[in-house]
Structures
1.
Amino acid sequence: MPEPNYPWGGEFTTGPPDGCVAVVLLNIEYTPPPSVAIFGKLKTENIGIEKIVANVISNPHIRFVVVCGEEIRGHRSGSSLLALHRHGIDTHHRIIDAPGAIPYIENLSEDAITRFREQISIIDYISVNDSTRITAEITTLDAQAPPSFGEPYIAIRLRPEATTSIEDARALHAKITIDYLGRVKRRGE
Amino acid sequence: MFSFTKPQHAFELGSITFGGQPGEHPTVLFGGLFFKGVPDFKTASTHLAAMLKIGEETGMPVVPDLFIRKEEYIDPILSFLEQHLPEAHPFSVDIIEPSLKVKVLESLHDHDLLARTIYNSLHIGVTAPERETLKRCTPAMALIVAFNPKDASPDGRIEVLENGAHLLDRGLLAVASSLGIEKILVDTAALAPGENSGAALASLPVVKEEYGLPVGCAIHNVVEKSKWLSRYGSVKATVDVASNAGVALFGGDFALFGPIEHAPVVVPLMAWFDMVVSEYAEAYFGVCPSERHPRRVFYP
């Protein structure tokens, strides 16, 4: 049985699983060549990056991540991904030196992030929109044909312990009760 | 349909009231402008006038939410609202980039507009310069987005409001208070499908009972991210506007409904839901609708 939390959801397209390149698309309309293992758009500097990390480290054949297109305004997701690869996270789980608005990695273990930083090299093509140039870079990376990094790393999504009680069938949430008319009260009051 | 035991705050800004018990005040509807490209002020003025008109006709309070993407757009957008929005009518400014937030706040101060401003938004990514600027240039009202990157449940949302979920030195409510922001709206942070998207709605009554503050969200964002709906043609647009009904039914006080051009559908739709909520709330809880409630407009 596959781990139910894997692969992590998102909008991506997969190619040959033994491809060594993954492509992260920022603000760009571009379809990478068929050799690419996985590509998709990145929007947010927190959950979006987590999905990329989780899915990339699950495939040890991926050794390069190309980040291309115009930066996502405000979120600065591409630069935040680069910062994660360069510096990792601090004790508050904030990506060190990330310029994004809310660059927090909360659903991945530090081991998973370390693995990501070690497994791949990142190619900074932020602001590059020339598809010919991006494709040429991917072709060059493909030609390097690096070996697999080893075993897949399955990043289990960290989930807080469930605290919700379903004892009261009319309760929407453990903190409140709702009587048959619809009056909401804090539980226990 | 709900009624809350906790006393509910109702904040006034201009002629609009935010909060209270369900059925008391109509849902405040935020229509967004300037999301993409270079601001098109001619089209924007048409859409804004249409939203204000249908709001007036139905009794529904409407607020333009001005998305500001670049520094060079700040002054033209503020001039636009000075020209096209009735005096004292509130508006919100939606800015993502932290450095741009600082510049917008300073411009709002210079234009003497802070008393009408709803700041969109304060969240766990708040920076030191932003805090400093908010102290000097304090908007009348702020949306606090209860986004918690590690816990998408209602508990996670309460955690960021209460103690900052170890991402901040204190909870977002205390941060807002320390900055002198007195009128607070809590946005329960609608996330993408697969990210516990339903929790944005489920959190509405939970947060409202916990704090008695006005609550709402941009639930239509979940629809926008539901790519599979695109297979069914115009259905996606229908679901997008209809999704806002969830806010009224879950006891919410405001909805950020997305592009302002949806106002001609969203506004009467929400007036209808507010009316059915009001009828129940009055019958069972004795909550009378306010003077300008759509129920009074259509059933005087």
2.
Amino acid sequence: MSTVSNAARPPAIGDVAPDFELDDRTGGRRRLSDLRGAPVLLAFHPPHWDPAWPESVRAYNGLIANLPGIAGARLLSIADEGAWHAPLFDDGVLDLPVLWLDRRPIAERYGVLEGAAVFVIDAEGRVAWRHIAGDPVSSPPNVPTAPIEPADEPPADRIDSDAVTTSEWTRRRFVATTLAAAVALAFARQVAHAEEVANAVASNGPTGAANAVRLRVNGRDISLDLDPRVTLLDALREYAGITGPKKGCDLGQCGACTVHVNGRRILACLTLAVMQQGKEITTIEGLAATAGGSGDALHPMQQAFIDHDGFQCGYCTSGQIMSAAAVVREPWGPSDDDVREAMSGNICRCGAYPGIVAAVQQVRKATSSDTNGVRR
Amino acid sequence: MKPFDYTVPRSVDEAVRAASAPNTRFIAGGTNLIDLMKIEVETPAHLVDLNPLAESDSTLRSVGDAPGGGLRVGALTPMSDVAWDPRVKERYPVLSQALLLGASGQLRNMASMGGNLLQRTRCPYFRDTAMPCNKREPGSGCSAIGGFNRSHAILGTSQHCIATHPSDLAVALVALDATIRVRTPGPAGSAADRTIAVADLHVLPGTHPERETVLRPGEMITAIEVPALSFARHSLYLKVRDRASYAFALASAAVAVNVANGTIRDARVALGGIGTKPWRSRSAERALIGKPAVAASFRAAANAALQGAVTHKDNAFKVELAKRTLVRALTEVVA
């Protein structure tokens, strides 16, 4: 039926994680079991290049750095070596980076052949949580569920071998897997919460303790357990797994994190998540729906950016599109100079500005001439 | 970012009481404060979120007519709402322009009018915790004096600080004689209102650059009041900067001029980008009133405005730049 038949079943929660040997890049060899004493986040990346890969590594690092439940965890990232992967392992947060020329022997022992997967291994070396691409995402008690794609998840408690062996890797799957890791880590955080509160009472200072924060993003309610210091951008990207808003400068200068709050464009990096409760937050993921689109239909501004080549590397693009979609509802004048001024808060390092201006103009003209066109 | 407690007050009076505690900051738009908290220049232990107050009191977040033809702007109103308000554009073009020439579209949707007035300087040494700065750490010294000071002030400086006040809005407001309404916490949970001219809100650095305004602990700006000024319909904000958009001013001018039969009857002049506070220039106004509305008068006013400028290594160009900025603003506004 499929190649997965040769692979072991994935270790269950509570099982001792299958041991394997690590190459620590200094020429030394260590075993997974040598790392006991601290939790380990084992992340399998698909054996294809995917643009979301660097994001998810950063997300794992951010979560490990910020969540006391797995503070000090080692991120073991199991991937095939490639030009795109290697530079990211210089990230200082990574404790023991591992690069594998061939991930297959390990992947087989964990029942993961083609897709992405995440295993949280506790300090005793047992699997504390796992998620394999294509698996249904588990919902531990009291852990809020975030929007998950794809919607057509297989039934619970069944490892979908077809999904595991799907050779056609999709970005949606990757987002779902990254998100699953976020949920796992949120669970870990809850365990640590009680301890944190106890410490706070003793210290008598500002606690930085997490609170339940309810956000409404792209029409869905999300509950997250957040320190008040968490910006809206970090809440979306690193806790809710919504990575469309990008982190560029994180200082309000580049516009890559632009989202809509109650229909207005704002910078998600300069507001706290806790301040945005009760508001309608729209990210690039939910933009098309605001124009009445369903399924794969694009928002007119997304289509216009494609029509006019309004991007090169794409990093600023979600921010550009979110900004532009709001600009056409603001009372700016009709000239290209007006568009440039209106869009000056979005920086494009590739210099795709002529295409961006043309895209905004296309939608602006269509909107002003057709009152039945774009909503509002 | 340092940990802090986050509080949502139920009323303005509760907010000012909460903010009377040491090391407490109000947060409205957050665009300046969160930025500075990330780099640990601001390290509040308590944050009081003012935004929810506008849900029960819409005057805190709206523009309304004031008796006598002026406007009253709630302190929590985002900059964009004021910039695009038809009454503002018609009666006070200088105000709308100053707002639209500041920050970016996204930031203007977030940043509040009250917060804009209280934004901190963009002096790079103020933002760099590795460097001495008298404003950030009193007594530690000024790195800008003798350092890289191209963007720094040439008016109102002291031996302890030459940081430029960054607000464009405040420059327009001092030209318009605007005032702020302030809620002041009193004894036993009481509170009272007081009014401060925007021109008196900011103080010169002198020997205490860490003191930037006359506001007392816990005080909250609730509104900005712009009095009627008929000739403000002929007003203008001109901003000169390194980029065409989205940059702080190297020099800027807010002007309003009343010309009859070729003679200047009345004038308002304020300068930005060159002062340690928003710089109203009454000497420039005196140089203009009663004079013909011609280039020579404008140049004389510009010379008067920049009298006493003190320059440093990299910012001497600002004297001539500010003069030309003012001359051009006056030329355009009477055209």
